[in-house]
Structure formats: structure tokens, C-alpha cells
């Protein structure tokens, strides 16, 4: 009889027992159980168990990194769902998108989320980079993580671009045709010095990208594999590295005097230390570097559970809310089926490449290779050239005048790009005055390179005048950001058929 | 943070539910199917039928015809399409008019092969696809006949349900469209070839002057009525067709889809010959050929005509004086290569060899036109091109501009003219003129009284206009 009673009791206790076998620590109410809630969980244990209050300030990070990660997650899930229906073949791709749009239950919504989420992710990645830059968070020991971030930026653009072709509509076909021609642009240089016959880097790049001479079946399957397998895998790996390094580099950056700046914690936060710690922090002593608790009391750290977890959930849900709201009201574009015989005019690359396309309209090599390579190289070098230590963890942080230089550089950067563009639009460029001019001259002397030169010169001037590499870095980063924004806007809104200037798309001649 | 979390979660939930409902529950086609069930039940004869109508599952229907590229979901709403019981019901439940579905069972042909439109769509605005990102929007009822011409010979359809299409094909020939446009291997090269005119999308036509709906069929209709109003630089002669004529021509244009790949099973036997030999299957005589190819510019061809649209004199190619100075080879060369620099574009490839000979016979008008006229035996004195130039400026340049374009009368500098017209012909023409045209006789007492020497000088000058070989 006893066994029977025990059996009944066990049966009633099953849900509880299952829960306890899953979550071994008790409810997260003590310091210990809160810590365990994080480090006993495979998915959460990438977080530290305690987090500094500075890192939780909304005005510091704006949650941008998390928005990137949340978008990626959202894109992965919707992308997987779309893969069930999408058929990567030139004959079937367009029809399968139409099916997703019209008959797959909620397919239209999923595709919209995937499309708008991708745009959101590109924006978030760019803004996240700006945040990290302006708070000097790339500095030692975070140089390598800045580089990983740049890799993630390139992967994000690659993922977005490779996804662009998949619907196989006119928009996709001609945007990728433009992209492939940009990949071929080193030929402009090799042609000019007459070595294309021996070293055809441009042709090789284009062939690698498309798998054939023009955008077709090979290009589609190539982009598909890149988009659904290769790039996401790399992305996941580098995201892992990126997060891991945050932990290893001592959490998010913060100023040395963060504790004083913050003052004592408010009444409403979960007590900083409710109990005397039962474990020593001895382990930290054998770890190199400055962990959050080495040589300093843990007073201004909060338990990650619940503070960080709530914040992350909030940012994730916020990203989701914005994306689903957009996706409910706006359908992802889908034009006529790709038709190699009917070129789109203007054929435009995805928006984040339109700044480059604006330069490409003068010289494909300058816009497609020279400027982006120089920009990426410059960005990679920033943490190694700026070895100052003041101003870490503060917006526009520098030894002095960071905010002022950022503002002045923004004004200079905007003025320069608008002046150069206005000149080129109003008066034309070398080719319109001297039709016979060799292209190699324009390759190195065009609005893009002129602008880059002005920006570099301005930044060098700032370094010498202010005697600060950090201020020079702020100057050039701000200038390039201003240039990127204005050129992208010009490419998006003010360029019409034959890449001519129009005040608005409503004035385009209609074909 | 907690407030943001809560608010975002609620917004997300709201839109997830809203989109789930709007894409799966409140969709128009489900509403139509429910209405159809009720209508059908109302018209049922016995309780059994009534029950069946009521219990019809609400589900998506589609007709898939892979070899025609049709994935048509039109039948999702048009449930009563093949049900005679639904006669008189409102759309989308009405049965298909006529016996077309008997001849062309939907399961073998689909809907969009005839009606165009976006078959994949499951709501009417997107199925209609006007001003949407779709190449072939739904055809208005009065233009649907055009689709018969995809698989059938238009002229054979006159009594078989497509009189407007047949009328369009007839008008195309009657109005001399072949003169500039090649179709079915027949016609000139001044205008665009029209074999696949019906497959053009709106992005291939200049839409700048088309206000309102930008569809190809509206473009065609208005372009027939006012070519220059739609395409400012168009050379097409305004023909001022009536509304019916413009519609018939539009229908015929839409039917031209030679490049479309069709399964053999769908194509009527008479269509194959039509694609290679034209809509009369090559059965045409010299007179017909002249009317189709030449008349639109040259008129009857016996008198020189000043064409107001072209802004120049068009040579009188059936003028006896003209014919007396030329041979078949001259005419053949002119017809095949045209006169570069003028609107006379070559017909090479635009007619068969037999056609060309029939046309030459017709131009000769029964008189024997020598294959090769012997060079004139008249003794020529070597002329002075300099003196000839001043005579030309005085006597000829008013009509024959020495430049490339030829002003209002035939250009004398064109290669075809210079290579094919021999000295005798040129002298003859200047001296005797072309009765019935603006070209009067310049020698003798009646005209300008040019002497033999002056004629020689003029000839030397005209020869100096020949384009240099590159």
C-alpha cells in the first residue's frame, strides 16, 4: 500500500520534479541563485553573472548591438521558414515567391519581415559601429573585437546583397547586374595599363561571383548557397567570437571613473549584494587583465538576472515590434519577373551601395574597389593608430573637445560632400569637358576620390592642430559618415534614368 | 525596461494576430466562396444538391497547365464559371459566356492564356494587375479576342468568334502598314518589326505622354489615333482611324506573339505557315504587293506627290518616263537596299524573291522592262563639275538639296542612286523631265533651256556628290 501511495505522490509531483531537473537552482531571489540562473544555462552563460550599471544605461549603448543580434535571429527564423517554399531556379524562383505571397499561410508577412528585417539590420549594424566608435570602445583591449565587428559588417552587407537576387524579379536581376559589374571594376585599372589580357582580376571576381558571364542560373544557385548556408555560418561563428571577446575584454567599455559618475545605486534596483558572498573571487586573480571585480569592489555591478535579461528581452521585443509593424503595413517589393531583354532604367544597387554607385557613375574602380577598400582599411587601422587612453566609455570621448570636433567635422563633411556633388551635378566632370580624356585620369580624380582626399586632409589638419590622434579619428569617421549619408541619399532619391539628376522621382521621364 | 518589454510584446502580439487573421481568415476569396455556396444552395433542385452546395469545402482552387505557364487561381473566386445553373448570377459567379470552355477546356488551357492578368493572385486588384508590377495585365473584355490570334490564323477567325481580330488583320494590310513594318516576313524596315508586338511590356514603350492607366493596350489604341501625340518623334503617318478601326488594330497587335513558346497541341495548323509567310500565306499578286508595301508613300505612283507628313516629293515610280529610263536591276537594287539617307528603307528580307519579281512586273505595267538596259550611246563630253555646281544651285537645289537628306525631292548623293543610275539615265531625266511630277524638262525650248554642255557639267557635278568609299 505504501508503494502505491508513494507512486501516486510521485505522479502528482512529476511536473515539479521535471522542472527541478531542468532548472536546478531555486527561484532567482538570492545572489547565488541569480548567478546560477545565468551560468547554469547553456544559452545564457555567455553573459557574465553580474554586470556593471554603466553597461545597462540605455543612453550609452542604445541597445544597438542587441538590435543587430535580434534582427539576425529574426532573419534566421523567417529565412528558414521561407526556405521551405523557395525554389532556387530561374524558372521557379519568381513563381515560388508569388506563391509565398499569395497562398502560403502568412507567407507574405514572413517575407515582409525577412525583407524589412534585413534593412533594419544593416542600419543597426552601421549605427552600432558609430556608437562603438564615438565611445572610443575600440581601444585596447578591444581592438580585435572592433575588427571582428568590421567582419560582421561586411558579412551583413554580403548576406543582404546575396538575398537581393533570390526573388528573381527585375529589381533583383538588375541590382545584381550592377553589383557584378562593380566586382568587375578592377578591369578599369588593368585596361588602362594594358594588362587585362594577362591579369584580369576584375573578370575573375565577376566570374567568381556569378559563375558565368551574366546573371543566370549559376549566379542564382551561387547566391542562394551563400545566402542560406555559407554566409550565415560565418556570421554565426563571428558573432560567437564577437560576444566571447566582450566577456574576455572585461564587458562593455566604461570610463575609469564610472562608479563616481553613477553615484550610489537607486532604491528600485535589485540590491547590489544582498548576502555576503560565499565564494571568493580568487579565480579572478589568476586571470590576466582587468575583470570587472579585480582590484575593485563589486559594488556597482548588478546581477545579470534580472537586469540584463530584462533589458535584452526588451530590446529583442522592440526590434520585433518595429519589424512586424512595418511588415504588416508595407509589402516587400516584388517587380516583374527578371527579363534580361528589358533593362531597368535606372538600375540601382541595394540602398546601402548607392553611395558607392554614385561614385561608380564616374569611375567603377574608384567606387567599387578603391574607396571601399580604403575605407575598410582605415576603419581597421583606427584602434591601432589611436593609442590615447582618455575618454573611453563616454560619448564623443576624448581628452578634450571631442563633441566639438565631432560637430565641426560633421559640418565640414556635409559641406564638402554637398559642394562636390553640387559641382559635379551642375557642371559635369572631366568627361563632359574633355570627351577624349583617358579613363585612368577619372579613376583617380573623381568626386569620390576628391572627397576622400578632402576628408583625409581635414583629419590630418585636425591631428596636427589639436595634437590628438583621437580627435583626428573623430574627424575622419564623422566626415566619412556624412559623406556616406549624403551620397546614399543622392543615389537613392536624386538619380533617375541614365543616372541623371532629378529633384524627385516624380519628375522621371516615364518609359 | 520592463515597460518597454511589455509594450513591445503587446505590439508584436497585436500585429502577429492581425496579420494571421488578415492573411488567413478575412481573405476576400473565402467570402466569395461562402457567397457562392449560399447562391448554389438557393438554386439547388433537391435537398441532396442543397446539402452538397452548403457543405462544399472552402479551399483554394487552381488550374495548372505547365506547358502554357499557367498557374491560374482565378477559379478560386469564379466558382460558377462552368456551372450553367449560375446563369444570371452576379460576378464573380457567372458562367463563362459562349461555348469557349467546351472548345478550350480550362484544365487544358487555363485562364490567363486568353485573358492575361496575374493568375497567381487571389484578390481581384492584383489579378487584374493594372499599374502593378506585372507584365501582362488583365485584358478588357473587348480586347480578349486578340488572344485567339496566339494560336490561330486571325483571318480564319472571322466567322469563328473573333471578327474584330480578323478585321484588324485585314486593316493592317489594307492601310499599308507593311510598307514600314515587317510582319510574317513581309514588309519594310523603317518601322519596328511587329512579329512579337503583343509581347511588349509597358517598360518597352514610351509612356511619357500616356496619361491615366499605363497599359500597352491603351498605348496602342491612342498611338493608332495620334502617333506623334504619344511618341513625339514618331515617323508613323497619322491615319485617323475610327474608334472601331483603332480597336481592331489594337486587338491584332496584341495577338502578335511569334516569340512565345507554345506546345504543339495548342497551336492551330494554319498558324505555322502564317508565321513564315505572312497572314495571306504568301498568296498575293503584284498589285496587292504594291498596295501593301509601296502605296502608303508613293500613292498610285504615276504622278509625283508632295507628301505633307514626310515633307518631300515622293518619286513617281510608275511614271512611264521614269520606267523608260530604268531597268529591272535598277529597280531591284533600289527596292532591296533602299535609298540611304532618305525614308526609303530597304526591303531586303522583307519579301520573297518571287514577291519582288511580281512587284517589278506590276511596276512595269505590262510593258517589257529590260533586265539590263544597254548603256546610252549618246556621246558625252567631259563636263566641268565647278560650272555644273553653279547650274545645280540655280536650277536644282531648290528641290534636290545636295546634302545627305535630299530635301523634298530624291537625294542625288545616295550610294544606291549613284551606283545604279547610269549617266544616260541622269541626262535623260534632266533633259526630258518626268511628266506628271514636279520634275520638268530642263532642256529644249519648254524648260530652262540647258545646253548639251551645261547638261554635261551638271552630270559631272552630280557625280561629284557620290559618297566616297571608306
Topology, element by element:
The complex is a heterodimer of chains A (511) and B (470).
Chain A: H1 2-22, H2 31-39, E1 50-52, H3 58-61, H4 64-83, H5 93-102, H6 107-134, H7 143-165, H8 170-183, H9 186-192, H10 201-210, H11 217-248, H12 258-262, H13 282-286, E2 301-303, H14 304-329, H15 354-360, H16 364-385, H17 402-427, H18 430-433, H19 439-444, H20 447-466, H21 469-493
Antiparallel strand pairs in A: 1-2
Chain B: H1 2-24, H2 28-42, H3 47-54, E1 63-65, E2 70-72, H4 100-103, H5 106-109, H6 112-115, H7 124-128, H8 148-151, H9 163-174, H10 216-225, H11 227-230, H12 243-255, H13 270-277, H14 286-293, H15 295-298, E3 305-307, E4 312-314, H16 320-325, H17 328-337, H18 353-364, H19 385-395, H20 415-420, H21 423-432, H22 452-464
Describe this entry's structure for a reader.
The complex is a heterodimer of chains A (511) and B (470). With 511 residues, chain A is an all-alpha fold. Chain A has three domains: 2-39, no CATH class; 52-267 and 299-344, Cytochrome Bc1 Complex, Chain C, CATH 1.20.810; 350-511, no CATH class. Chain A has helices at 2-22, 31-39, 58-61, 64-83, 93-102, 107-134, 143-165, 170-183, 186-192, 201-210, 217-248, 258-262, 282-286, 304-329, 354-360, 364-385, 402-427, 430-433, 439-444, 447-466, 469-493; strands at 50-52, 301-303. Chain A is globular, with a radius of gyration of 27 Å. Chain B has four domains: 28-138, no CATH class; 148-277, Cytochrome Bc1 Complex, Chain D, domain 2, CATH 1.10.760.10; 286-364, Cytochrome Bc1 Complex, Chain D, domain 2, CATH 1.10.760; 385-464, Cytochrome c-like domain (Cytochrome Bc1 Complex, Chain D, domain 2, Orthogonal Bundle). Chain B is mostly helical. The mean pLDDT of chain B is 86. Chain B has helices spanning 2-24, 28-42, 47-54, 100-103, 106-109, 112-115, 124-128, 148-151, 163-174, 216-225, 227-230, 243-255, 270-277, 286-293, 295-298, 320-325, 328-337, 353-364, 385-395, 415-420, 423-432, 452-464, and strands spanning 63-65, 70-72, 305-307, 312-314. In chain B, strand 3 (305-307) and strand 4 form a beta hairpin. The interface between A and B is large, with 38 and 36 residues.
Amino acid at each position: 500500500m505504501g508503494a502505491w501511495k508513494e507512486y501516486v505522490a510521485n505522479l502528482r509531483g512529476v511536473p515539479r520534479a521535471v522542472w527541478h531537473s531542468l532548472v536546478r537552482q531555486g527561484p532567482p531571489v538570492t545572489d547565488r541563485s541569480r548567478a546560477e540562473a545565468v551560468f547554469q544555462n547553456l544559452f545564457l552563460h555567455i553573459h557574465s553573472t553580474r554586470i556593471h550599471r554603466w553597461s545597462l544605461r540605455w543612453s550609452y549603448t542604445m541597445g544597438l548591438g542587441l538590435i543587430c543580434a535580434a534582427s539576425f535571429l529574426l532573419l534566421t527564423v523567417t529565412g528558414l521558414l521561407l526556405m521551405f517554399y523557395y525554389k532556387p531556379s530561374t524558372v521557379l524562383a519568381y513563381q515560388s515567391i508569388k506563391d509565398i505571397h499569395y497562398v502560403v499561410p502568412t507567407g507574405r508577412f514572413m517575407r515582409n519581415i525577412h525583407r524589412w528585417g534585413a534593412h533594419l539590420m544593416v542600419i543597426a549594424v552601421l549605427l552600432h559601429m558609430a556608437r562603438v566608435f564615438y565611445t572610443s570602445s575600440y581601444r585596447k583591449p578591444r581592438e580585435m573585437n572592433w575588427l571582428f565587428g568590421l567582419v560582421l559588417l561586411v558579412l551583413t552587407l554580403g548576406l543582404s546583397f546575396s538575398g537581393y537576387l533570390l526573388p528573381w524579379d527585375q529589381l533583383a536581376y538588375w541590382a545584381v547586374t550592377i553589383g557584378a559589374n562593380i566586382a568587375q571594376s578592377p578591369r578599369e585599372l588593368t585596361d588602362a595599363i594594358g594588362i587585362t589580357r594577362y591579369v584580369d582580376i576584375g573578370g575573375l571576381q565577376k566570374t567568381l561571383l556569378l559563375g558565368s558571364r551574366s546573371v543566370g542560373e549559376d549566379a542564382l544557385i551561387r547566391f542562394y548557397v551563400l545566402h542560406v548556408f555559407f554566409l550565415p555560418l560565418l556570421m554565426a561563428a563571428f558573432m560567437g567570437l564577437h560576444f566571447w571577446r566582450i566577456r574576455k575584454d572585461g564587458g562593455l567599455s566604461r570610463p575609469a571613473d564610472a562608479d563616481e559618475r553613477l553615484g550610489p545605486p537607486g532604491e528600485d534596483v535589485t540590491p547590489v549584494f544582498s548576502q555576503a558572498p560565499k565564494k571568493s573571487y580568487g579565480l579572478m586573480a589568476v586571470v590576466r587583465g582587468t575583470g570587472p571585480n579585480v582590484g575593485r569592489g563589486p559594488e556597482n555591478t548588478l546581477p545579470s538576472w534580472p537586469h540584463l535579461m530584462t533589458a535584452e528581452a526588451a530590446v529583442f521585443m522592440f526590434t520585433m515590434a518595429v519589424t512586424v509593424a512595418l511588415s504588416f503595413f508595407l509589402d516587400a517589393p516584388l517587380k516583374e519577373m527578371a527579363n534580361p531583354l528589358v533593362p531597368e532604367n535606372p538600375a540601382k544597387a541595394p540602398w546601402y551601395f548607392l553611395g558607392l554607385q554614385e561614385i561608380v557613375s564616374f569611375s567603377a574602380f574608384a567606387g567599387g574597389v578603391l574607396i571601399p577598400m580604403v575605407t575598410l582599411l582605415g576603419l581597421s587601422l583606427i584602434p591601432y593608430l589611436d593609442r590615447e587612453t582618455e575618454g573611453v566609455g563616454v560619448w564623443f570621448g576624448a581628452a578634450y573637445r571631442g563633441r566639438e570636433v565631432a560637430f565641426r567635422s560633421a559640418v565640414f563633411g556635409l559641406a564638402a560632400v554637398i559642394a562636390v556633388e553640387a559641382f559635379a551635378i551642375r557642371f559635369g566632370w572631366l568627361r563632359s569637358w574633355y570627351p577624349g580624356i583617358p579613363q585612368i585620369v577619372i579613376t583617380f580624380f573623381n568626386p569620390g576620390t576628391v572627397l576622400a582626399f578632402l576628408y583625409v586632409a581635414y583629419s590630418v589638419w585636425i591631428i596636427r592642430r589639436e595634437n590628438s590622434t583621437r580627435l583626428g579619428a573623430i574627424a575622419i569617421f564623422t566626415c566619412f559618415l556624412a559623406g556616406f549619408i549624403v551620397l546614399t541619399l543622392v543615389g537613392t532619391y536624386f538619380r533617375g534614368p541614365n543616372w541623371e539628376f532629378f529633384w524627385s522621382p516624380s519628375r522621371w521621364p516615364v518609359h | 525596461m520592463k515597460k518597454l518589454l511589455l509594450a513591445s510584446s503587446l505590439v508584436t502580439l497585436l500585429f502577429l494576430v492581425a496579420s494571421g487573421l488578415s492573411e488567413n481568415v478575412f481573405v476576400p476569396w473565402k467570402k466569395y466562396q461562402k457567397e457562392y455556396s449560399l447562391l448554389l444552395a438557393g438554386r439547388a433542385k433537391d435537398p441532396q444538391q442543397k446539402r452538397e452546395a452548403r457543405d462544399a469545402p472552402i479551399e483554394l482552387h487552381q488550374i495548372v497547365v505547365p506547358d502554357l505557364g499557367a498557374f491560374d487561381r482565378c477559379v478560386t473566386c469564379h466558382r460558377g464559371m462552368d456551372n450553367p445553373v449560375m446563369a444570371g448570377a452576379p460576378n464573380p459567379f457567372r458562367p463563362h459566356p459562349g461555348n469557349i470552355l467546351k472548345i478550350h477546356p480550362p484544365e487544358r488551357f487555363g485562364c490567363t492564356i486568353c485573358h492575361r492578368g496575374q493568375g497567381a493572385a487571389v484578390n481581384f486588384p492584383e489579378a487584374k494587375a493594372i499599374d502593378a508590377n506585372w507584365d501582362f495585365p488583365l485584358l478588357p473584355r473587348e480586347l480578349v479576342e486578340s488572344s485567339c490570334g496566339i494560336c490561330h490564323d486571325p483571318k480564319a477567325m472571322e466567322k469563328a468568334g473573333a471578327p474584330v481580330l480578323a478585321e484588324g488583320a485585314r486593316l493592317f494590310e489594307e492601310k499599308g502598314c507593311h510598307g514600314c513594318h515587317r510582319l510574317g516576313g513581309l514588309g519594310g524596315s523603317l518601322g519596328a518589326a511587329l512579329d512579337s508586338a503583343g509581347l511588349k511590356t509597358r517598360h518597352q514603350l514610351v509612356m511619357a505622354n500616356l496619361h491615366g492607366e499605363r497599359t500597352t493596350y491603351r498605348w496602342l489604341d491612342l498611338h493608332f489615333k495620334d502617333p506623334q501625340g504619344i511618341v513625339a518623334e514618331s515617323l508613323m503617318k497619322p491615319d485617323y482611324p475610327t474608334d472601331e478601326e483603332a480597336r481592331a488594330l489594337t486587338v491584332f497587335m496584341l495577338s502578335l506573339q511569334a516569340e512565345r513558346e507554345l506546345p504543339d497541341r495548342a497551336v492551330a495548323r494554319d498558324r505555322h505557315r502564317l508565321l513564315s509567310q505572312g497572314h495571306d500565306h504568301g498568296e498575293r499578286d503584284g498589285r496587292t504587293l504594291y498596295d501593301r508595301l509601296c502605296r502608303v508613300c508613293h500613292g498610285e505612283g504615276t504622278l509625283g506627290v508632295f507628301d505633307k507628313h514626310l515633307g518631300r516629293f515622293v518619286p513617281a515610280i510608275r511614271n512611264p518616263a521614269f520606267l523608260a529610263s530604268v531597268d529591272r536591276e535598277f529597280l531591284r537594287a533600289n527596292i532591296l537596299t533602299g535609298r540611304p539617307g532618305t525614308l526609303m528603307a530597304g526591303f531586303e528580307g522583307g519579301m520573297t524573291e518571287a514577291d519582288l519579281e511580281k512587284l517589278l512586273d506590276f511596276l512595269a505595267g505590262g510593258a517589257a522592262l529590260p533586265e539590263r538596259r544597254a548603256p546610252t550611246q549618246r556621246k558625252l563630253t567631259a563636263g566641268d563639275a565647278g560650272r555644273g555646281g553653279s547650274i545645280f544651285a540655280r536650277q536644282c537645289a531648290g528641290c534636290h538639296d545636295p546634302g545627305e537628306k535630299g530635301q523634298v525631292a530624291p537625294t542625288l548623293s545616295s550610294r544606291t542612286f549613284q551606283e545604279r543610275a547610269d549617266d544616260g539615265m541622269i541626262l535623260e531625266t534632266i533633259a526630258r523631265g518626268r511628266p506628271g511630277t514636279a520634275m520638268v524638262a530642263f532642256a529644249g525650248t519648254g524648260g530652262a533651256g540647258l545646253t548639251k554642255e551645261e547638261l554635261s557639267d551638271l552630270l559631272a557635278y552630280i557625280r561629284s556628290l557620290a559618297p566616297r568609299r571608306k
